[in-house]
Amino acid sequence: MSFNDSSRLESQPTTMRRSDDPQYSDDPEFREFSTKLSDKLFSLTGNLNRLSQQVALLGGRRETERVRERVQDIIEDTSTGFKEVGEGLKRIAEWGELGPSQKFTQGKLNREFKASLTEFQVLQRSAIEKQRASATAARAALDHEGDGISSSPSGQQQQQLQQEQELHLAPQDEVDFQESLIIERESEIRNIEQSVGELNELFRDVAHMVHEQGEQLDIISENVETTRNDTRGANTELTAAARHQRASRNKMCCLLLILAVVLTIIILAAVLG
Question: Where are the transmembrane segments (predicted)?
Fold first, then answer.
């Protein structure tokens, strides 16, 4: 950069700022939309904490029908939330030209979403395994009880057989009730498995976006580094030009001072002579 270039730079208006550059422009709609997604992810994190606490109760003495209902409700609500955020991330991916700060926000949302979704899938699988083991054990116990009820010693009289059947009426009702509970539990397990399958597809889509975003961020990082180096070089040249300009002004002042002294001497000599 020459001395004349530095002079032109100094004479340019100072109203141009980074915000005036389309590359760094702020999109209020993007900011509002990305903030909503971030808030939704934060809410889903709370769901994951509650789900983790409830899943820990499954398969133990503290497992109850209410616990299983809470697990099912949280999973359904969280699945819906992840689907909504996933669709939002797809919308951001199709937003158009994004500036560096917006791409950074996009990458941050993608990574947070992927991490939270991975944690959710782990909890889902744990819930499935525990509920399946519990349902299998309950069905085995029920089948054993049913075998005991249906079998009767041979050679009994009709009156004794009738009495035993009357005694077994109440337990059979309990067996039917337990059977319905097991069927309901198995249905809940299938619902969770279906949710896992749907989220697996969403996970693959977001993982692909994260991978692409990572490559884009690498390119942005390289561009930023190049811009930083260019800026440093320009600053160095500007500093040198400014130093040269100050030196030139100092020399000019010295010459003017010497000329003034000489003129003063000449004038005094003429007057005195």
Answer: 253-272
Rounded to whole angstroms, how far apart are CA atoms 129 and 18?
Answer: 54
DSSP labels for the chain? --HHHHHHHHHS-S---GGGSGGG---HHHHHHHHHHHHHHHHHHHHHHHHHHHHTTTTSTT--HHHHHHHHHHHHHHHHHHHHHHHHHHHHHTS----HHHHHHHHHHHHHHHHHHHHHHHHHHHHHHHHHHHHHHHHHHHHHHHHHHH---TT--HHHHHHHHHHTHHHHHHHHHHHHHHHHHHHHHHHHHHHHHHHHHHHHHHHHHHHHHHHHHHHHHHHHHHHHHHHHHHHHHHHHHHHHHHHHHHHHHHHHHHHHHHHHHHHHHHHH-
Among the four given CATH numbers 1.20.58.70, 3.90.850.10, 3.30.1540.10, 2.30.38.10, the one describing domain 20-272: 1.20.58.70
Domain residues of the chain, as ranges? Answer: 20-272
How far is 237 from 241, CA to CA, in rounded Å?
6
Q: What is the pLDDT of residues 46-64, one digit of tens each?
A: 999 999 999 999 988 888 8
pTM of the predicted structure, to 2 decimals: 0.58
